[in-house]
Design brief:
VC0802-like, Rossmann fold, 7-stranded mixed beta sheet, 31% helix
Length: 400
């Protein structure tokens, strides 16, 4: 296996985000195929893996497949992995970090399979070079062999990302139950943000501001991995440094520092707005986002087209159903009375409460926030359906 050879590249994502990830990959010119609820595959070489690392917003990792074996025990796995030319692929001066998934009838603890995997890689190095490389408990600064063993087949990968791509580096201050950056990007992709030129984004109930920040990066056509300093592929022998410089230069060329985009973030809690503003500053988009401390119904709105997305409290983590029922009912009223000609989105982990919004969604997507099954509900608020009797006195007038 050389870096120029085509193989299967596997992009991993959160559960329910595979559709958004496939859309991203198609936009990059690939022909994706879904492997599972959390993995999408494409055909490509190491350059493609590097390109995916710099551009994908919804993926957690990019895996480069190097081998596959039929194995029926941890010892079979050890022998098969030991035949691979790890000394040709991995930099002996860098530590290596093992991670992966193992499910087999012979395993009482999947960690034993990862231990045998690690031993096979290290023993191969000793056998071929007389040196035993260091192993690392963390992916940062390490090469990352990866295992996927289920049933009688094991697939062996090189994780080209290392630290998860969800770690953008801008969110130092988190509000209650924040969205992971890749999940926020998936919500925006599924809701169709950016498909309409000059579409505005409004983020009431902003919390840490992740949705608005990701929307600003999308408006800038900013590659989310452009300013990240370290990837696991940089610990591989013979990785193409010149190709990487060219990819980063292309990303800089496409970047638009000041797009004509109307983006806002608001929250009723001034501390949340302060955290969101600090995070936006670290992300380099504080000048693009209009921040407001107000009830969501008083959030200033632009003229259509616009996407308004809320992530209200779920109840499981932060409240009770009785307390939140009026909130969900008022979201539906707000969409009907204030968001004509726009699209509304609600991401919630309380599915029964979402029905109290009282509108029929044009799109419904099951997505998981950690271990909580959630729904993204998208509503098309057509002109002419306004019911003035439902207007709130404190609803703000539209802004230019």
């Amino acid at each position: 296996m050389t870096w120029e050879e085509k193989t299967t590249l596997v992009a991993t994502c959160g559960k329910g985000c595979a559709g958004a990830l496939q859309e991203e990959l198609r936009a990059l010119g690939y022909a994706p195929f879904e492997l599972s609820a959390t993995t999408v595959g494409v055909e490509g070489d190491m350059r493609d893996a590097m390109r995916m690392n710099i551009w994908l917003r919804t993926a957690n990792r990019v895996l480069f497949e190097v081998a596959g074996f039929a194995v029926d025990s941890p010892d079979d796995l050890y022998e098969a992995v030991r035949t691979l030319p790890w000394e040709e692929w991995l930099d002996a001066d860098a530590p290596f970090h093992i991670h992966g998934v193992a499910q087999h009838d012979t395993l009482r603890d999947p960690r034993f399979a990862l231990l045998r995997f690690k031993d096979a890689v290290a023993d191969r190095f000793v056998e071929q070079t007389g040196r035993r490389p260091d192993s690392s408990p963390k992916p940062e600064g390490a090469s990352c062999p990866s295992l996927y063993w289920k049933g009688g087949e094991a697939r062996i990968y090189l994780d080209t990302s290392g630290e998860s791509l969800s770690h953008r580096g801008y969110r130092w201050r988190s509000w209650v139950a924040p969205l992971r950056e890749t999940l926020a990007a998936s919500i925006l992709v599924e809701a169709g943000f950016g498909r309409t030129p000059s579409e505005a984004f409004v983020g009431p109930m902003c919390g840490s501001g992740t949705l608005s920040i990701e929307a600003a990066w999308m408006a800038q056509q900013r590659a989310p991995g452009l300013h990240r300093e370290a990837y696991a592929f940089q610990q591989l022998n013979g990785w193409e440094q010149e190709a990487w410089r060219e990819m980063k230069e292309e990303a800089r060329h496409r970047f638009c520092a000041a797009p004509k985009a109307w983006i806002s973030a608001s929250d009723v809690d001034s501390r949340a707005v302060a955290y969101a503003r600090e995070n936006a500053q670290r992300a380099g988009v504080d000048s693009l986002i209009r921040f407001h401390t107000c009830d969501f119904r008083a959030t200033p709105l632009p003229k259509p087209p616009a996407l308004v997305v809320m992530n209200p409290e779920y109840g499981e983590r932060m409240g009770t159903e009785d307390r939140l029922l009026p909130l969900y009912e008022s979201i539906g009223t707000y969409f009907k009375t204030c968001c004509q000609g726009m699209r509304g989105g609600v991401f919630t982990g309380h599915i029964p409460l979402s029905r109290k919004i009282g509108l029929h969604p044009s799109k419904r997507v099951a997505m998981w926030n950690g271990d909580i099954e959630c729904r993204l509900l998208v509503y098309d608020m057509y002109e002419g359906t306004r019911d003035t009797r439902l207007l709130r006195k404190h609803a703000a007038p539209a802004e230019q």
